[in-house]
Amino acid sequence: MKRLPIACLAxxxxxxxxxxxxxxxxxxxxxxxxxxxxTPFRVYEEIYFVGTRGLASYLIATPEGHFLIDGGLPENAxxxxxxxxxxxxxxxxxxxxxNSHAHFDHSGGLAALKEISGATMVASQxxxxxxxxxxxxxxEDDPAMAAPPVKVDRVIxxxxxLTLGGATLTARLTPGHTKGCTSWTMTAGDSEILxxxxxxxxxxxxxxxxxxxxxxxxxxxxxERTKPSxxxxxxxxxxxxxxxxERRARQVAGDANAFRDRESxxxxxxxxxxxxxxxxxxxxxxxxxx
Length: 290
Ligand SMILES: [Zn+2]
Fold this sequence. Notes:
α7 runs antiparallel to α9 (264-289). The chain is 30% helix and 20% strand. The longest helix is centred in the last third of the chain and has 26 residues, at 264-289. Residues 1-20 have low confidence and may be disordered. The protein has nine helices and twelve strands. α6 (125-133) links the parallel β6 (120-124) and β7 (154-156). It has a seven-stranded mixed β-sheet. It has a five-stranded mixed β-sheet with strand order 8-9-10-11-12, with no helix packed on it. It has a single domain, classed as Ribonuclease Z/Hydroxyacylglutathione hydrolase-like (Metallo-beta-lactamase, Chain A, 4-Layer Sandwich), CATH 3.60.15.10. By secondary structure, the chain is α/β, with parallel strands linked by helices. Zinc ion (ZN) binds at residues 101, 103, 177, 198, 202.
């Protein structure tokens, strides 16, 4: 893929030929922290936070190029690129682009980031259509849910590894929140890291009709399969899922283990499973009423 000139990287201006336009999302007004800058930082070993205050993106930096997980909202791409540069890396060295799931608040910036980096977009089969169409299955006619389409260059399956410069990420499919919701695990230093997709219900319909066929079974399978999982470090696409700001403050104050917490993931999943069962009962009751 043709790469943009370096002058386009900082601004990602519409005047740069070929640069993807990034209209302001309708969601930014109601979620101002989603577009609020946050100082990028090293989370642990080769893992860096390069997102905004309310939407995480992660750079996994290696001597042979970098992984980048998630692109935030469409208008966040320039900020993510700037954060990468602030940390001393070159966004054009991003070789592999990943996405936790195909919702506009995590996939919106991918098309622009792919264009400026020339990276290979890797995603699950379950989210491929949504990424390539920019639409959400079951909400295809809702323009507020749309994202700039991004071509998937390689489809990854459950358990498959991606290796770059000595870092290996393993795909763990955790469907439900979206059909192809993909979590990633890796070992960094002496720690097991989990980049968790999500298992909130959010705008999903669980009944009458469901967002997609099989969604309830997918959520339940995800809750079951993740029960034994106790990663040393939980990272997720919404910083609130792992108290990022509080942990970052502790890290700045000198606590080298601020992000290590093996109780964090099981506690999150217990909350999400309870919320799912409650929403399922509500959606089912409503569907019967109709
Ligand atoms: Zn989502």
